Amino acid sequence: MNALKGLVIFLGILIVIAMTALAYALYYKSQNPDFKLFAASSPATSPSPTSPASPPSAIPPPPLPPLAAKSFGDINLRLPRDGEVKQMTSDGRRLFLHVDGPDGGRVVVIDLANGSVLGNIHLNRAQP
After folding, report:
1. Domains in the chain with CATH codes
2. Which of 88, 74, 55, 56 is nearest to 116 (CA)?
3. By C-alpha distance, which of 114, 113, 71, 62 is closest to 92?
4. pLDDT at 106 over 90
5. Distances 126 to 82, 108, 123 between C-alpha atoms, Å
6. pLDDT of residue 125
7. CA gap 104, 83 in Å, rounded
8. Strand 117-124 versus strand 94-101 pairing type
9. Averaged over 77-94, what is the pLDDT?
10. 36-74 b/e (C-beta count within 10 Å ≥ 16 → b)
11. How far apart are CA 85 and CA 77, in angstroms?
12. Handedness of CA 11, 14, 16, 22 (dihedral sign)
């Protein structure tokens, strides 16, 4: 019975140590993305540079971080006479303006880094 109590106490201490190491690693990983809890493997166990490359993974790359805002002055955007901006959305790097007018609409794509108009996507109404 005493051996069982000792085993339970020992395993409890191991759990506390593991949770402390996990909390330590998560905190320092959030401060420094290159942080590793354990040292890198020795050169003897690492694959040689002449070994074939592993197949590409199916995981898509992470999205790009948004750019820092820079001043680019004024943008003069020509709208149709009866046109109005219906909606604006952004993906962090580009601004999409949905402009509606009597002859149809368009989506204007603006680069947020320098303020240039990247292009227009024209939305023409079908003729009856």
Report:
1. 1-39 (no CATH), 66-128 (2.40.10)
2. 74
3. 113
4. no
5. 19, 20, 9
6. 64
7. 9
8. unpaired
9. 82
10. eeeeeeeeeeeeeeeeeeeeeeeeeeeeeeeeeeeeeee
11. 11
12. negative
Mean pLDDT of the chain: 76
pLDDT for 31-80, tens place per residue?
A: 877 777 666 655 555 555 554 555 555 676 666 666 555 666 677 777 77
> What's at 64, amino acid-wise?
L
pLDDT the model gives residue 32: 78
- Kindly report the backbone phi and psi dihedral angles of residue 88, in degrees, each rounded to the nearest multiple of 5, phi listed first: -130, 135
Q: Is 83 exposed, middle or buried (0-12, 13-18, 19+ CB in 10 A)?
A: middle
Structure tokens at 52: 């074939």
Structural tokens at position 5 = 């109590």
Indicate the pTM of the whole model: 0.41
